């Protein structure tokens, strides 16, 4: 048998990339060397400096940092620290070549038009009710509901920090300057806080950013809230959270979120709270509910703005 | 008196669910008062510090590090909890490591990592393959050379060197082997058994090993020789050493030899060696005629026959179907596997039908410009030939190579049946049947499309699911490539030119 393949990849397995998120596609074009940073059952991460991309099976869903490939990651035997060479839209790791040429770019659809402030308020109240029964004990989900006695050190601080984020968001609209906004602590207090690959506090902020981004197209107040939160994230010093999670935060602050969070927020702002929770409630152990906590917190901050307050039932978060 | 224990894993990422599971397991262990498993971010260190379980090691952790911190009622409970935590943290990596190879940059480093290894697989551009093979031989390793583009003189030299060291060189251009149950390069997941295979053809080894597996048998070892081993210049060095090896292997009961017909002098040497063995052989020299075999050997005209014979079954097939092509009288074969292309030609030639190919076997006509111009005859096209694959991956890896010739065959009114091969296993495309089904869906049934699927249900692409996809797209799936060719003859009738 004669196997004719280009000499540079002689003997390699070539795996076509199906879809590439916007940041991941740029990574493939602009980075020459990377290394395997983490390996999971259905995905692995490549890193170059402070930038990470995720390569995964179709089941993990699309995202701005994600390359989707028809592969079974567990069979590839990848290990953290393995070098990756990137050239001409191909990523070579050992005997495996990921071919990005011709892959479909992925970006989320436009946000749908948001429901009325009253419907949004109802959605927020429904989140709080569902959190009592559905959110995992760990993370920020239960902290939304004030429903149980804090059982550990994390739970003891979680409620206070969510409340501080909400207050800060509300007050940031009237803050005099960007440096003043960047200097405040509530965002930095959440970042890096909690369990998980992406600490729970980071997921809270990503959820809040996504919600405000969705509302920003229709509401000036949400636009201001979003800009302030994004600016605060941009000004976070390095070292508050893991490099991988910090990358997710920066990308979310730039307006890019993954497919499942996008779908959840879209459902939430159109009043279909059950669908929203169904889409992201099971992400990670607590990440999905941490994002939901961020969504609810941002909804509360938005509801307190003059443009929305008249028609919103106020529920403290 | 309570104790605090910390374990820090540098720059370590675990799935959140794994972290939570481990954290809960440790927290509920006897004698553990409090435990936390978190990234070493400042915020998390604050929490652990407030809880009174952050020690000096944990204090020094970075945001990308993982901290396991616990307080136990006494030193013994703390030590037990920490030992269990380390075991749980290492478990996923140990499981992964068991299924993987270390990453090394030289063969010498690889041998240091795996001192018990006795085989090196060389897959580098052909210009460098011989040098790497020599390094491996010098370290006492058998060698499998996947690379092609190795000069014939180099092949001869390296095989002679290896023979002097009593080491085997499989290849160059050796695409398939199964050694001790481990599939190498393009190979399938087949059970261990008592049939040994020696093959100059990768797809030949794949087809025979899969047919044996599907018939309930298994493979002791399948040794690839490279396509030129039976040439006079090489003198069957690897084939003869492989026969020695399988002859001496107590786990091998029966040996199958697969190759194109060797030159007469080489065939004589090989068959003399076969005659000296006490084990039964099946000889499948595809396209050979007038073979004089020793008493312990039986000839097999096709790969299917080789598999049947090795299993002690009577080679044959079921009754011909009553289907008839409703248009055209010609068969167009579009093969990813070169050996399948050859085998189909042989089946047609044995049926007395003229056949042409871009890679003709003796007795078949040569096609020139096979991509565009087909003569008015049954034609068997090897899509792995240079003409189709220059600058592109092999069709077993990238089935799009078949799209254009398949479209042409579907549109050609003279074609009554199309023959296809689908090769599964390690290294092959993840869903070749799905790709074909996408091309064939929605057509009106003419011409008939007949395929064989080489693989097993244990392959990365389970054969049963691949067969179902083809059947759903209206493809007739034969049990073997030879049977597919016979089926094609049956449906177009024997009246074709």
How many β-strands of chain A, per DSSP? 9
* Biggest sheet features of chain B: 7 strands, parallel
Helix/strand-derived class of chain A? Answer: alpha/beta
**Distance, first to last CA of chain B:** 96 Å
**Broad shape of chain B:** globular
How much strand content do the residues of chain B show? Answer: 15-25%
Tell me the overall shape of chain A. Answer: globular
Low-pLDDT regions of chain A: 1-12, 309-317
* Count of runs of 4 or more consecutive helical residues of chain A: 13
Strand content range of chain A: 15-25%
Most extensive chain interface and residues per partner: A-B, 61 and 69 residues
The side-by-side strand order for the widest beta sheet of chain B comes to 16-15-17-14-18-19-20
What is the subunit arrangement here?
Answer: heterodimer
Q: Using only CA atoms, what is the Rg of chain B?
A: 29 Å
Q: Give the overall average pLDDT of chain A.
A: 84
Fraction of residues in H or I helices of chain B:
25-40%
Give me the secondary-structure topology:
The complex is a heterodimer of chains A (317) and B (497).
Chain A (H helix, E strand, L loop, with lengths): L12 E9 H9 L2 E7 L3 E6 L2 E6 L9 E4 L13 E5 L2 E4 L2 E4 L4 E3 L10 H18 L6 H5 L7 H20 L5 H6 L2 H5 L9 H17 L3 H15 L8 H11 L5 H11 L3 H8 L6 H17 L2 H4 L8
Parallel strand pairs in A: 1-8, 1-9, 4-5
Antiparallel strand pairs in A: 1-5, 2-3, 2-6, 3-4, 6-7, 7-8
Helix pairs in contact in A: 2-12, 4-12, 7-8, 7-9, 7-10, 7-12, 8-9, 10-11
Chain B lengths: L2 E7 L6 H12 L4 E8 L2 H9 L5 H4 L6 E7 L2 H24 L8 H7 L5 E4 L3 H13 L3 E4 L6 H13 L4 E2 L5 E4 L2 E4 L6 E8 L2 H13 L4 E6 L12 H12 L5 E6 L4 H12 L5 E5 L11 E3 L3 H8 L19 E6 L2 H13 L4 E3 L7 E2 L11 E5 L3 H4 L13 H9 L3 E9 L8 H9 L7 E7 L8 H10 L3 E3 L2 H12 L5
Helix pairs in contact in B: 1-4, 6-7, 8-11, 12-17, 15-16
